[in-house]
User: Which sequence fits this backbone?
């Protein structure tokens, strides 16, 4: 049995037929071919799958595709392109906030969320570290990710 | 022109744009028309005989295309997964290497071992089929404990005491004599905790067989695609080498765990050939915990002999190393040649003797994980040195300084086989102590005490052997492969270049670093250089990325190839400028007749080579493309000094790192930004080992208890601090780049620094990793009780 999901992804209306138990991350990756959103775990621990739902970061492995019905989903492909990067993307490159790049889309999406929530206040390193709790990077030791998010937030 | 982009420049990475915009291409991002999905049926028992296995229900399940077992694999002649490094025991006998079939045949020997694969039209169809497999497992006695493995029930037929080999290195009688004459002897029992690598991208494989050409393409998350092709062809028998193409696209971290030849990629390739359709498998995280090779897992006894002034006289080490249930690709070399040979560390200890017993247990195979053997050696040595300082009442920095190999003593022959080519260990230590404000520590400790906190400081001076090579030496030591590296530079007619390297990046930024090397050498911009790696059909050959060998070995091959390009370019320029090659200088992309203003640019020479109208065709072939293989003379020896400062809450045992300082000597650095990033990541993994990460098996059932990220603590951003880094530079003396390698340093240097700091803070002699709050609190209570008693 499949069900139809209709939603907006990166500003474009999309729909697809999925098993009812299909996770949003699989819908995005497999039905839509947007492979920038990654899967790093099966326990909602790593944050590699982070996307925005109506502007808020969520773990796309923790939601069913059908729960996105009628909502706005933004993936890493939707925030900036080569040649026209989002300030958070640019900050990651500038500050060497990535190595293998696998956690990076989730980190950038989480980072934008952190910056949005901090709007109007100064974002301390400690706050960034605490708010990054849900995202794991195995490569960078976070030092440069924290720097990147601070810089990206300043530029946003 | 190239000063801003060449060697030593802090340039942003070329590869980043695709990663930050979600356009990276990892194995799981690749799909093929008509693709099937594989789900592996895995043992739920630590050790059991498979009495019977009925596959009919699974085969009949909707959407299932095939169910294949170990018997099918054997019938098709697919061989055992080999271990590539032969080790001999002290009596000269070869190690015992039990067969390691990709799908278990008759007996399963660890929880998670695959015994069948279900292949379906969709992953969920395959999963539903796999759920119907219910073999009649008859339990056999299981042992997961390293220390007691030799007295446990046998795991493999004909292997007594579960002992793979009993290896020794060094002069035992000289070491015993050193102990006999010692004024002080320090003893320590040391456990190096088993770790699970956990690259954030899980492993994946996609076999894609083309019946028209008979070529099998295997897309896989490998750090080492050429080696995968070689082993899968020559030993496993998957396909002849010219009919097997291995592609590893972007790889999301590896840390060693993606070097090895695994069951799943073998099975996906084999099944694709058998079914004549693409077959894909992507691990979920639980499978990664069960099936990626684990790391470390040593139980050791160490003894250090010192004279009355604190000079080291002798070191004696006895280690039991857990190999898991089977031998993984490199597993035999890790506790031996990558461990025993590093036990001299940075010190002049004249006599060292080490014995290593490697044992089989009912656990996941163990193999290289970031640092591989060297973290185990450094942890042991730097813990016992610290303990010695405390036992003798000496300052730990002073005791180290007293025993360090002085900078004018290189090349330095250690008593455990290696010859260090160069270094300046005292300079590293001095710089680290200054950066960490070691002198100011007592005041900080007092201030913390006033707040009710226990503050401690710990040092670690590590050395490692990197740039894995040279072939001749590796061969003498039992390696089954050569350890050189290849490079090819194709200069295109319009003057830009494509570089092919046999190494492969999984986050190290080779596309930038390698381009910087060539940019410096050929005097062309970074944007004119494309680096290609990870595809056996494109690059010539290579031995992959591990052991911090990519730059030291692969980069050196690239230097050689660049030099060949310049040599040929000089000949072409000489002809065009009516001069002699010896009279042509090449600098910053321009060929010039010495002392004149007659010049040709690199681009003009490239064009002439491909449009040879005015060209010395009698002497030179057209085209401008060169290949080089580089086989180094020696390992490289990065070294450094790390200082960790911690604060412990005595009420809870909770420990925070408050300051972490690392000073490393990596020789020539190509891109300081990338090198710093490598050190950060290594330190994070080392701190993970020291404070958080523990692979735990249930001692009764043999079940993996730390089988997910919920049960295995991975370092998160708020577990760590910013690290203070600096470098000392002594260039490697034998490779043309002077580079030593930086990838593993942090993981090697940091665990002893952390544990030395915590034991300093709480005043105990030993503390096993990971230093969880409970463990620290318990040690603190025991220490307090002991103090009260005495
Ligand atoms: S894949 Fe979603 S949190 Fe790990
Ligand atoms: S960059 Fe590799 S996991 Fe973060």
Assistant:
């Amino acid at each position: 049995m499949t069900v139809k999901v209709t939603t907006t992804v990166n500003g474009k209306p999309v729909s697809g037929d999925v098993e009812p138990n299909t996770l949003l991350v699989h819908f995005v990756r497999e039905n839509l071919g947007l492979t920038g959103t990654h899967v790093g775990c099966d326990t909602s621990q790593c944050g590699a799958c982070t996307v925005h739902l109506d502007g808020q970061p969520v773990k796309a492995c923790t939601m069913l595709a059908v729960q996105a019905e009628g909502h706005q989903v933004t993936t890493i492909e939707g925030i900036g392109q080569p040649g026209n990067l989002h300030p958070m993307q640019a900050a990651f490159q500038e500050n060497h906030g990535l190595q293998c790049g696998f956690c990076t889309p989730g980190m950038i999406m989480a980072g934008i969320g952190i910056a949005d929530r901090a709007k109007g206040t100064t974002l301390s390193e400690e706050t960034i570290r605490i708010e990054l709790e849900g995202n794991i990077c195995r490569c960078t030791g976070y030092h440069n990710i924290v720097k990147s998010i601070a810089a990206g937030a300043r530029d946003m | 022109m190239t000063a801003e982009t060449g060697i030593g420049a802090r340039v942003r990475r070329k590869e980043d744009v695709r990663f930050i915009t979600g356009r990276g291409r990892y194995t799981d991002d690749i799909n093929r028309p008509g693709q099937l999905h594989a789900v592996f049926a895995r043992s739920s028992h630590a050790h059991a005989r498979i009495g019977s296995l009925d596959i009919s229900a699974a085969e009949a399940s909707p959407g299932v295309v095939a169910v294949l077992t170990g018997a099918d694999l054997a019938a098709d002649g697919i061989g055992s997964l080999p271990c590539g490094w032969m080790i001999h025991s002290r009596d000269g006998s070869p190690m015992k290497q039990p067969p390691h079939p990709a799908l278990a045949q008759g007996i399963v020997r660890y929880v998670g071992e695959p015994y069948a694969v279900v292949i379906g039209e969709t992953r969920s169809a395959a999963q539903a089929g796999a759920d119907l497999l219910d073999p009649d497992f008859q339990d056999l006695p299981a042992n997961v404990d390293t220390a007691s493995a030799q007295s446990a029930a046998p795991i493999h037929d004909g292997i007594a005491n579960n002992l793979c080999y009993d290896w020794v290195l060094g002069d035992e009688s000289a070491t015993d004599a050193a102990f006999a004459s010692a004024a002080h002897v320090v003893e320590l029992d040391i456990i190096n905790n088993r770790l699970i690598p956990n690259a954030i991208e899980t492993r994946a494989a996609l076999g894609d067989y083309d019946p028209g050409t008979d070529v099998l393409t295997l897309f896989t998350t490998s750090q080492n695609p050429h080696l995968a092709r070689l082993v899968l062809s020559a030993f496993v028998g998957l396909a002849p080498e010219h009919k097997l193409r291995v592609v590893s696209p972007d790889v999301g971290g590896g840390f060693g765990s993606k070097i090895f030849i695994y069951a799943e990629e073998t099975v996906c390739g084999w099944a694709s050939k058998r079914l004549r359709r693409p077959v894909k498998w992507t691990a979920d995280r639980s499978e990664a915990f069960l099936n990626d090779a684990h790391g470390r897992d040593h139980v050791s006894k160490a003894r250090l002999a010192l004279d009355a002034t604190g000079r080291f006289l002798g070191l004696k080490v006895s280690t039991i190393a857990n190999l898991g249930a089977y031998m993984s690709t490199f597993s035999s070399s890790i506790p031996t040649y990558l461990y025993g040979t590093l036990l001299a560390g940075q010190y002049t200890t004249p006599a060292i003797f080490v014995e290593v017993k490697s044992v089989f247990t009912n656990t996941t195979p163990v193999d290289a994980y970031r640092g591989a053997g060297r973290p185990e050696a450094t942890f042991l040595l730097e813990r016992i040195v610290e303990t010695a300082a405390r036992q003798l009442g000496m300052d730990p920095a002073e005791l180290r300084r007293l025993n360090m190999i002085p900078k004018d003593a290189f090349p330095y022959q250690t008593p455990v086989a290696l010859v260090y080519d160069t270094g300046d260990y005292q300079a590293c230590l001095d710089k680290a102590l200054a950066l960490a404000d070691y002198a100011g520590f007592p005041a900080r400790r007092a201030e913390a005490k006033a707040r009710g906190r226990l503050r401690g400081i710990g040092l670690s001076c590590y050395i490692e052997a990197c740039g894995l090579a040279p072939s001749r030496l590796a061969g003498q030591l039992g390696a089954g492969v050569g350890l050189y590296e290849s490079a090819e530079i194709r200069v295109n007619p319009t003057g830009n270049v494509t570089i092919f390297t046999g190494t492969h990046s999984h986050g190290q930024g080779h596309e930038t670093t390698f381009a910087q090397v060539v940019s410096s050498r050929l005097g062309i911009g970074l944007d004119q250089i494309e680096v290609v790696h990870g595809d056996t059909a494109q690059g010539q050959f290579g031995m992959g990325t591990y052991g911090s060998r990519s730059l030291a070995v692969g980069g050196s091959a690239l230097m050689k190839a660049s030099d060949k390009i310049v040599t040929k370019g000089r000949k072409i320029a000489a002809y065009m400028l009516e001069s002699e090659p010896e009279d042509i200088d090449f600098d910053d992309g321009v060929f010039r007749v010495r002392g004149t203003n007659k010049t040709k640019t690199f681009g003009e020479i490239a064009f002439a080579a491909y449009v040879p109208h005015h060209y010395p065709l009698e002497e030179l072939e057209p085209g401008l493309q060169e290949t080089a293989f580089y086989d180094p003379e020696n390992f490289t020896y990065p070294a450094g000094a790390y200082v960790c400062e911690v604060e412990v809450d005595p009420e809870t045992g909770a420990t925070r790192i408050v300051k972490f300082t690392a000073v490393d000597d990596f020789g020539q650095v190509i891109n300081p930004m990338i090198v710093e990033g490598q050190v950060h990541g290594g330190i994070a993994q080392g701190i993970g080992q020291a404070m958080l990460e523990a692979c735990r098996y249930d001692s009764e059932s043999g079940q993996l208890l730390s089988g997910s990220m919920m049960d295995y603590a991975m370092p998160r951003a708020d577990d760590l601090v910013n690290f203070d880094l600096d470098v000392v530079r002594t260039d490697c003396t034998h490779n043309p780049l002077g580079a030593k390698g930086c990838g593993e340093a942090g993981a090697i240097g940091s665990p002893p620094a952390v544990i030395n700091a915590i034991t300093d803070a709480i005043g105990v002699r030993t503390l096993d990793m990971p230093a969880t709050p409970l463990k620290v609190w318990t040690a603190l209570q025991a220490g307090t009780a002991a103090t009260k008693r005495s």
Q: What stands out?
A: The longest strand of chain B covers residues 312-324. Chain B touches chain A through 57 residues (CB under 8 Å). Residues 550-576 of chain B form the longest helix (27 residues).
